[in-house]
Amino acid sequence: MPDPRIAVVPAEVEFTAVRSQGAGGQNVNKVSSAAHLRFDIGASSLPEAVKARLLALPDQRISAEGVVVIKAQTHRSLPRNQSDALARLQALVDAAAAPELPRRATRPTYGSRQRRLASKAQRGQTKAGRGRVSGGTE
Question: Do the domain assignments include residue 3?
């Protein structure tokens, strides 16, 4: 079986350096260390089946135009954030590259059917005993 991993070509990825959010003192205002990754699914060299599965994913990082946008800002340096964003994109592509296995229908066992019917009968008897109490002095 061939390796399902399909490598993303780094030349098809566009990086933009932006300022990170959150605490960090004056350094946050001076240095653009967060990486903004943009990857156009339609213009990429991925196989058509993988493109279709990627576009069908219910992922908020994929825009309506079919562009994956990932912002990485966990590290303090831009190269590490870029490699983190590229790894996250690769994980997304790997998830879409693996074909979904068809569901194989199964049947309940004889014992499980018997237990279900016995519990239904028990529940019915419990409910039948909840009726109005008749009798008393007239």
Answer: no
